[in-house]
Amino acid sequence: MNKKINIILNGFKEKVRENATISFLIAHFKEGDTDLIVEHNGRFVYPHEYSDMTLSEKDSIEFINPNFGG
Length: 70
What we know:
mainly beta
């Protein structure tokens, strides 16, 4: 059975599978921006950490797309 945990993603409550990683979130929420910036609990996450960083209950994740605007 897949247990779910609660996280905050870009200010919204989301339920994701236990042991989800940043890489999973990027794929699951279809974040295709190659310049994506990720923060985990207010800390910048380097892209090489995405597949190793496992999320915990009540973690806060921010996806920042620096290419917005014009």
